[in-house]
Sequence to fold (239 residues):
Amino acid sequence: MTQRDENEGTIRRCSADDSTDILSIINAAAEAYRGVIPPDRWHEPYMPAGELAAELADGVAFSGYRVKDRLIGVMGVQELHNVDLIRHAYVLPDRQGQGIGSRLLRHLCQDATRPILIGTWAAADWAIRFYERHGFARVEESSVAPLLTAYWNVPERQIATSVVLSSPPLSHDGAGRLIAVRRRKGRDSAWESDDPHASKGVASMMIECRSALQPDRPAIIRTKTPVSPHRFQRLLSVL
Ligand SMILES: CC(C)(COP(=O)(O)OP(=O)(O)OC[C@H]1O[C@@H](n2cnc3c(N)ncnc32)[C@H](O)[C@@H]1OP(=O)(O)O)[C@@H](O)C(=O)NCCC(=O)NCCS
Fold:
């Protein structure tokens, strides 16, 4: 997907080849956090290469703003069961405040059909204002920890020092309903899990399937939800 804008910048999906540039943008832009976020949450580099690789493997899809093929800003989307998360929004320091983050955010939100959630540091008031200007609203404090626990994989200390913003705005009850659906869908889609060990249910059901296989006869294994051949092979490979 490509979109031209008036400054000749182009927004398009990043590929695995962009990982080094994504990392340098994140780590340069994250300097904004130095001395602002709690000192025990600051580390260098802010995002190590292994963490970015894990985020990509976890389904975070980055889009990048490029000028003459040089990556200037990045923003990721992670589609979860019933929400989209905006993850890792960073623009090179000398290009911040020029509307690039706004374009990336609008681009990623334009086709959204589900609630969009963003988590950021409570102390990053500029980032909170940035999102608020784009129609996001902070969820109530009592919903922050339940949402972060349900949709993110962050340590307790980070939960205590973060805020969550949502578009459209989310009431306390609305957040509770989202989380309940997410938990239910999470169980239903266990068959589709990328990690065959993610659910004991999956492992034990697959073992039952295997014990039913006849070596001399092709077997038909039915799954509750569609499973791609690739995922199915991965599930079988752990048995
Ligand atoms: C937040 C960020 C992605 C926004 O991208 P951007 O290209 O600067 O965004 P825009 O130019 O479209 O809008 C920037 C607005 O936010 C403010 N802003 C953004 N970053 C700021 C910063 N580090 N310090 C102060 N204000 C900042 C600008 O004043 C501007 O306000 P305005 O619209 O009233 O002029 C980018 O500034 C950035 O990388 N910041 C540091 C890292 C960060 O906080 N990331 C958010 C992680 S959730």
